[in-house]
C-alpha cells in the first residue's frame, strides 16, 4: 500500500509536513484528535485530502484509521503520549511508523520493539527530521574521516525560537539526569560540564543535554563514546506562560535563523577531525525531511525494525534537504 497518513496534521509542524507531502504529489490522508476536527476540516479542504479522527491511545479507532495505509508520520507531540500507542498500532496494522520526535523515550521504545518489528517486517523510524537527521549525517560523515572512531562530541546550534508544541514537549520531557555514552553504555554526567564549539563564527559555549542522538548515532556508527550538546541563541528558548506563545516562528523568522551543528571525532590512533553542518531553520528542515522520508519509504526504501535516517538512507540524507551542506574544518 502506498497511501500515507499524517497524524497531528492540525499542529504547526504537522501542517508544514502536509504542505510538503502535497508538493511531492503524495497520496495521503490527514488525521488528528476529535477536538481538532474544525481545523482538520479546513486543512483537508485546502489540501484536497481526506481526514480521519481518532485519539492515539484508542487502539480500536487507531487500527481502523490505518485501513488502506502503508506509512504513518506522527507529528503529534508531546510524543511521550503518542509514540507508544501509534507504534503499537502500526505493528498491529502492518504500517511503517515514521516520527519527528526529539524526545529520548521514543527511541528507547523503538529499541525495545525492534525484535517484534523485524519479525513483522515493519519499520520504526521515530526520527526522520530534526537533530536526528542533521546530526546523524554530520556524525557519519566525520566518522569516516578517521580510522576506528572511538569518541564523538557533537553540538547543535538552535536559533529562531520554538513552536508552542515544541516548548510544551520540552517542558514535559526535562530529564532528571544528563546522560552521555561511555564504552557503549548510557551513564550520567555533570550537567555543568560546558565546552566550546565553533559553529563557523568563533567559539561558543554549549551545555551538555540528553539528546536522542546518543542512541541514534551509536546505532548508526557504533562509536562507543558519545556526548551531545546544545547552544541556544539568546532569545530562542521560550519563557513565561507557554499557552500564550504564538503557534510557531513565522516564515520570515525561519528564513532569518539557520541552524548549525559542529562535531569532533577522535580515531583509535588519536587523530581528531572536525566538521560543520549548515542548514535551514530546524522547522523548515524537519518538515521537508519528514515528507521526503515518507516519499522514499512509500517508494520501497524500508527496512524492518528500528532505523535512523543514516542507517536507512545513508550519511548523505541531510544534504538532500533544502540547501544543507557539510564542510570539514
Automatic annotation (TrEMBL):
<dbReference type="InterPro" id="IPR036291">
    <property type="entry name" value="NAD(P)-bd_dom_sf"/>
</dbReference>
<feature type="domain" description="Saccharopine dehydrogenase NADP binding">
    <location>
        <begin position="5"/>
        <end position="123"/>
    </location>
</feature>
<dbReference type="InterPro" id="IPR005097">
    <property type="entry name" value="Sacchrp_dh_NADP-bd"/>
</dbReference>
<dbReference type="Pfam" id="PF03435">
    <property type="entry name" value="Sacchrp_dh_NADP"/>
</dbReference>
<protein>
    <submittedName>
        <fullName>Integral membrane protein</fullName>
    </submittedName>
</protein>
Amino acid at each position: 500500500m502506498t497511501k500515507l497518513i499524517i497524524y497531528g496534521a492540525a499542529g504547526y509542524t504537522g501542517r508544514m509536513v502536509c504542505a510538503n507531502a502535497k508538493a511531492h504529489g503524495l497520496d495521503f490522508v490527514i488525521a488528528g484528535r476529535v477536538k481538532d476536527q474544525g481545523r482538520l476540516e479546513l486543512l483537508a479542504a485546502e489540501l484536497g485530502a481526506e481526514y480521519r479522527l481518532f485519539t492515539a491511545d484508542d487502539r480500536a479507532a487507531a487500527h481502523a484509521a490505518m485501513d488502506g495505509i502503508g506509512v504513518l508520520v506522527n507529528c503529534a507531540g508531546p510524543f511521550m503520549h503518542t509514540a507508544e500507542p501509534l507504534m503499537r498500532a502500526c505493528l498491529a496494522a502492518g504500517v511503517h511508523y515514521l516520527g519527528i520526535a526529539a524526545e529520548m523515550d521514543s527511541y528507547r521504545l523503538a529499541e525495545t520493539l525492534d525484535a517484534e518489528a523485524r519479525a513483522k517486517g515493519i519499520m520504526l523510524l521515530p526520527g526522520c527530521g530534526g537533530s536526528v537527521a542533521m546530526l546523524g549525517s554530520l556524525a557519519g560523515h566525520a566518522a569516516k574521516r578517521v580510522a576506528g572512531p572511538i569518541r564523538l562530541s557533537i553540538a547543535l546550534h538552535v536559533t529562531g525560537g520554538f513552536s508552542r508544541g515544541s516548548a510544551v514537549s520540552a517542558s514535559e520531557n526535562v530529564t532528571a539526569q544528563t546522560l552521555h555514552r561511555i564504552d557503549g553504555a548510557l551513564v550520567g554526567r555533570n550537567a555543568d560540564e560546558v565546552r566550546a564549539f565553533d559553529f563557523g563564527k568563533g567559539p561558543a559555549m554549549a551545555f551538555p543535554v540528553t539528546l536522542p542522538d546518543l542512541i541514534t548515532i551509536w546505532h548508526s556508527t557504533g562509536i562507543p563514546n558519545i556526548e551531545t550538546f546544545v547552544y541556544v541563541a539568546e532569545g530562542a528558548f521560550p519563557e513565561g506562560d507557554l499557552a500564550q506563545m504564538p503557534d510557531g516562528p513565522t516564515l520570515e523568522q525561519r528564513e532569518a535563523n539557520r541552524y548549525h551543528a559542529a562535531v569532533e571525532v577522535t580515531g583509535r590512533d588519536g587523530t581528531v577531525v572536525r566538521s560543520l553542518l549548515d542548514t535551514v531553520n530546524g522547522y523548515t528542515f524537519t518538515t521537508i525531511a519528514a515528507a521526503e522520508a515518507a516519499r522514499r519509504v512509500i517508494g520501497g526504501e524500508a527496512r524492518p525494525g528500528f532505523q535512523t535516517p543514516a542507517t536507512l538512507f545513508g550519511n548523505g540524507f541531510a544534504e538532500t534537504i533544502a540547501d544543507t551542506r557539510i564542510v570539514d574544518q
